[in-house]
Amino acid sequence: MKKLLAYILTNSISLIMLSGLLSGVYIRDLKTTILLSLVLGLLNSTVKPVLKILSLPLTIMTFGFFSIIVNAFVLSIAFSLTRGASMNGFFTAIIASVLFGIINSFVESLFKD
To answer: Looking only at Cα atoms, what is the longest distance across the chain?
Structure first.
């Protein structure tokens, strides 16, 4: 339970920072941010592993860069499934997925004991 709350907290902080950095990313309020974080966690644990396995040949051929596309796709699905959150286009999703990974790593490092 503690791990889940830490995951939701770090993702929520990262999503708030992401929406502040990118004009193409909109999140209405804190409730929407928490819901988006939950949806993202659910997609990361179910859909993303399947997509990573299916895209493994492309990921190998592109030396891992195709995983950014997979992350962007999962992020855009999460935004489309959450009412009150929106993202303008897939190119924004690609930039957002890269920034989200960087921001999330930084935020997680702040909470490590």
So the answer is: 40
